[in-house]
Specification:
heterodimer, A: 298 residues, alpha/beta, 2-enoyl-CoA Hydratase, Chain A, domain 1, eight-stranded mixed beta sheet, 9 strands, B: 305 residues, three-stranded antiparallel beta sheet, 9 helices, 31% helix, binds zinc ion
C-alpha cells in the first residue's frame, strides 16, 4: 500500500512523524469547537442538559445557521485554562454528555436539521460516577442513535479523536479529518503502558498505531483530509475557513446523492451510512485461501 | 482515550479462569476465590464451573458455554475461515502482531476471539455469538466485527433471534482504529436487526470492559449478567490511577449494575438455558416455533397450571 506521504519526493522537507502529529493535535492553542462555532456559524443558540441528570460542559451543542441553513452543531470542548479545564473535565465527556448529544440529534431529526459534529477529546471520562451512570451504555446508545438518525451527518476530527469518546459523535455520512488531527483506539501513552509497560514508548506506539489523518484516509475510514498548510494553531482563521468549506461541500454531496427530503432518499442515505461502516475491517478468509490453493494449476 | 483497557495481554489462562482461583498441583483441585473451598476440578466442570458451596461463577471458555446452552449437536459454526490481518504492520515490545496471533491460536486452540453460529435451544433456532476471553483477552478486532455482522445479517434474513455472550478486556490495540470502528459496525448490524423486530439477548460475563460494553452488548433488547461478573467501560486500575479515589465496594459487579439500572436482571448459569427458551418464546410468537395461541380463559389457565 502507498500513502500520500510515501509518494512525497525526496527533496520535500521531512514529513512530520506520527508523534509530531500527536503534539500538533494537542497544541494548547489549537482551535477548539467554540472557535469553529464562532467563526463558521451564526445565531448559535447553545442547548444545555440531557434532561436526565445534568449538563456536561465537555460536550456542547446547539442550533445555528451554517452557510445559509439551520443545522445542529455538536462538539467536544475542553478548556483554555486550568479553571475552565476543570469545569469542562478536560473535554472528556461523562454519560450525561452523550445523552445530551442524543437528545440534540433527535431534536435535529424532528426538524430535519443536518448535524455537524466536531471531534476533539482525549476520550471518555474514566471516573467512578461515570461508571455508575453507565458510561459504556451511554456511548453505545449514541452509536445506535446516529445509525438511525434520518438527517445528514458530517463529522470532523479537528484535533484529537480519542477512542469511544470520539466515536460516540463520530458516526455519519462523511468523516473528515484535519491534516494534523489524530484518531486512535487508545492514546499512544495508554498503548505504550499496556503493550510496552513503559509510557516513554508513546512515540513508538503512535507510529505503530497509525494514528495520522493520512493513515486513516489510507485505511478508508476517513473520507477526506482538510489540509493545514500551516498548523491550525498558527493559522487558525485559514484552517477554520477551509474546514467550513469541506463541511459545506460534504453536506452538499450528501444532499445531491440522496435527496434526504424524501423517504426513499432517507432510506438510501441510511443504507449508505450502514454500508460505510459495514465495510471497515481488515481480515482474510482462510477458507478461500484453501480454495485458491486447491485450484489445480493445470 | 487512555482508559479503554483493563489489562489486555497480561492474562495467563489456566483452566479458563485467570482471575483469582488458585490451582493446586496438577490442576486437580481448584480453590474457590470466594469461599476458599477446595473443589475437585472435574467436579467443577460438571457443575458448569459454579462453586457447589457458594455459587461463585468461575470463568468459562466459549465452547464450554456453547455446550451448556445448546441442544446437543445442534451448533452449526459459521465463518470459521476468517483470520486477522495486520493492516498496521503492528510491532510492540513482544514482537509483530501476526506472531502473537499465531502463538495465541496454538495456546488456545481457537483461531479468533469470537465464535458465531446457529443452534437450537429446545428445538428453537437461535443465532449464538460467544466471546472467548482466553484469546487475547477477548479483544474486539476486525474478525470479531465481521463475524458478528455476518451472523446478525443472517439472523435478519432467516428471522432468527440473536443471543450474544459478551466478555472482553477491551480493544484489539494491534488493529488500531480498525478495532475502534468495530464498535460502530456491530451496533449498526443490530440497528438493522431491530428494524426487523428481531430480538437481541445479551449476556454479560466476567470480565466485560471497553468497546464491547460501549457498543452492542449494552444496547441489546434484554441485557443480562452472570452473578459477580465485573462489567464496565474503564478498567478499575485505570480509574484508581487517574482519580486516586478508593473504589466503592462491589464497584462494577453485576449486582452494582443492576442496582444502578444498567441491566435487566442477573441470571445464574444453571438457569440460563431455561431463561433463554422462555425469552425466545415470548418474542418469537410469529416465528417458526409459534407456540399454540393462548386463549386466556380461566379454564386454560387452570389446565396450564
Ligand atoms: Zn465457593
Amino acid at each position: 500500500m502507498t500513502t500520500d506521504v510515501d509518494e512525497m519526493t525526496s527533496d520535500a522537507p521531512p514529513a512530520p512523524t506520527a508523534w509530531d502529529r500527536v503534539k500538533l493535535a494537542r497544541a494548547t492553542d489549537r482551535p477548539t469547537t467554540q472557535d469553529y462555532v464562532a467563526a463558521l456559524f451564526t445565531d448559535f443558540v447553545e442547548l444545555h442538559g440531557d434532561r436526565l441528570f445534568g449538563d456536561d460542559r465537555a460536550l456542547i451543542g446547539g442550533v445555528a445557521r451554517f452557510r445559509g441553513s439551520t443545522v445542529m452543531v455538536i462538539g467536544h470542548q475542553g478548556g483554555t485554562n486550568t479553571k475552565e479545564n476543570i469545569s469542562r473535565n478536560f473535554g472528556m465527556p461523562r454519560p450525561e454528555g452523550y445523552r445530551k448529544a442524543q437528545r440534540l440529534m433527535r431534536h435535529a431529526e424532528k426538524f430535519g436539521l443536518p448535524i455537524v459534529t466536531l471531534i476533539d477529546t482525549s476520550g471518555a471520562d474514566p471516573g467512578i460516577s461515570s461508571e455508575e451512570r453507565g458510561q459504556g451504555t451511554a456511548i453505545a446508545e449514541s452509536l445506535m442513535t446516529m445509525f438511525g438518525c434520518r438527517v445528514p451527518i458530517v463529522c470532523t476530527v479537528i484535533a484529537e479523536g480519542g477512542s469511544g469518546g470520539a466515536l460516540a459523535i463520530g458516526i455519519g455520512d462523511r468523516l473528515l479529518m484535519l491534516e494534523n488531527a489524530i484518531y486512535a483506539v487508545a492514546s499512544p501513552e495508554a498503548c505504550a503502558t499496556i503493550l510496552w509497560r513503559d509510557v516513554e514508548k508513546a512515540p513508538e506506539a503512535a507510529e505503530t498505531m497509525r494514528v495520522t489523518a493520512a493513515d486513516c484516509y489510507r485505511f478508508g475510514i476517513v473520507d477526506d483530509i482538510v489540509p493545514e498548510p500551516q498548523p491550525a494553531h498558527e493559522a487558525p482563521q485559514e484552517v477554520i475557513a477551509a474546514t467550513g468549506d469541506f463541511i459545506e461541500q460534504a453536506l452538499r454531496d450528501i444532499q445531491s446523492a440522496f435527496d434526504p427530503e424524501t423517504e426513499d432518499g432517507v432510506a438510501a442515505m441510511l443504507d449508505a451510512r450502514y454500508g460505510k461502516f459495514r465495510a471497515i475491517g481488515a481480515w482474510r478468509d482462510a477458507s478461500l485461501d484453501a480454495l485458491d490453493s486447491a485450484t489445480p494449476e493445470s | 482515550m487512555r482508559n479503554f483497557f483493563k489489562r489486555q495481554g497480561k492474562f495467563q489462562p489456566r483452566n479458563g479462569d485467570d482471575r483469582n482461583d488458585q490451582i493446586i498441583p496438577e490442576d486437580l483441585w481448584v480453590k474457590c476465590p470466594k469461599c476458599s473451598e477446595l473443589i475437585y476440578s472435574k467436579e467443577l466442570d460438571r457443575s458448569a464451573r459454579v462453586c457447589p458451596k457458594c455459587g461463585h461463577h468461575f470463568r468459562l471458555r466459549a465452547r464450554h458455554r456453547i455446550r451448556l446452552l445448546v441442544d446437543p449437536g445442534s451448533f452449526e459454526e459459521w465463518d470459521t475461515g476468517l483470520r486477522p490481518e495486520d493492516p498496521l504492520a503492528f510491532v510492540d515490545g513482544q514482537g509483530p502482531y501476526p506472531d502473537k496471533v499465531e502463538r495465541t491460536q496454538l495456546k488456545t486452540g481457537e483461531v479468533e476471539a469470537l465464535i458465531t453460529g446457529v443452534c437450537r435451544v429446545e428445538g428453537r433456532p437461535l443465532v449464538l455469538v460467544v466471546a472467548d476471553f482466553d484469546f487475547l483477552g477477548a479483544s474486539m478486532g476486525s474478525v470479531w466485527g465481521e463475524k458478528l455482522a455476518r451472523a446478525v445479517e443472517r439472523a435478519g434474513e432467516h428471522g432468527w433471534p440473536v443471543m450474544t455472550v459478551n466478555a472482553s478486556g477491551g480493544a484489539r490495540m494491534h488493529e488500531g482504529l480498525f478495532s475502534l470502528m468495530q464498535m460502530a459496525k456491530t451496533v449498526s448490524a443490530f440497528h438493522r436487526l431491530g428494524e426487523r423486530r428481531l430480538p437481541h439477548f445479551s449476556l454479560l460475563v466476567d470480565p466485560c470492559y471497553g468497546g464491547v460494553t460501549a457498543s452492542y452488548a449494552t444496547v441489546a433488547d434484554i441485557v443480562m449478567a452472570e452473578p459477580g461478573a465485573l462489567i464496565g467501560f474503564a478498567g478499575q486500575r485505570v480509574i484508581e490511577q487517574i482519580t486516586r479515589q478508593k473504589l466503592p465496594d462491589g464497584f462494577q459487579t453485576a449486582e452494582f449494575l443492576l442496582e444502578h439500572g444498567m441491566i435487566d436482571f442477573i441470571i445464574e448459569r444453571q438457569q440460563l438455558r431455561q431463561q433463554v427458551r422462555t425469552l425466545i418464546d415470548l418474542y418469537m410468537r410469529d416465528g417458526e416455533n409459534e407456540p399454540a395461541p393462548v386463549v386466556a380463559t380461566a379454564a386454560s389457565i387452570d389446565v396450564d397450571a
